[in-house]
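Entry 12.
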Amino acid sequence: MVERLFMEAVVAKVRQRGGRYGKALAVLGAASALTAGAAAPSVATTEQSGSARYVALGDSYTSGPGIPEQTGGDCARSRVNYPSLTAAALKEKSFKDVSCSGAKTDDMWRAQGANAPQLNALGKQTRLVTVGIGGNDIGFGDIIGTCAQLSVTDPAGAPCKKKFTATDGSDQLTARVNHAAPKIAHVLKAVHERAPHAKVVLVGYPTIMPDDGKGCFPAVPIAAGDTPYLRDTEKRLNAMLKQQAAKAHVRFADTYGPTVGHDVCKPTATRWVEGAQPENPAAPFHPNAKGEQSMARSVLARLR
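Predicted 3D structure (tokens):
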């Protein structure tokens, strides 16, 4: 669901501008086609009612849209996403992944289509909870779509940064990150209440834009000055998540540092987060299988 909606949004915005860049991005419309991928780990996923020992909550960076083998219906879960890999590494057979593409913090308490409120999966039997949430609360898809559209108007400038600068000079995306902080705190409090005996790991977001701030327009339709702007926005989001984890006395898994050098602008073989035109099976601007493997390693490191 999220990969289709995300691609449609980006394509629509860029096509409004037309020209050679719009044509170049038309391939996004077909990017959801999946190819054969890695075999699923041999771990049983608990689907029946009642809580599992390990429960994974989160959005599309957790669910792994576009990465074969897909399951979970519209939630677009991969059987090799980081929760599945973590469960396999821990040899945890009592495992439930309720992550869902497009999820916001509110979806911890409300259904997303057929996906029940994610917090419903927790219980007193739960001993491990991973949570990956917050990107959609700041409007990740809209931000990327807007920046892609504006990039064709000023490829060497920073039109997206200008767009998100308020009349008083403040940064609107920084304000969005700050506004999301109490929502993250509310989720973590609810997790503690519903799974009082569980270890909780709040999982950050991996490197998307190049950490050195050098973009690769037009392959990735983000203007030169907006590449470091979006990089810094993601760093603010991760810093906020880390701060909220500390306040809630839960563990924070840094997935940004270990993925530096594997961003959207890197060659296919070394890219762990795909760009506008995925060359490895994944949704645009989302982790591929190698990215999910790295995220699993980060989670496991926090459990030692």
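Annotation: The domain at 2-302 is CATH 3.40.50.1110 (Rossmann fold). The radius of gyration is 18 Å.
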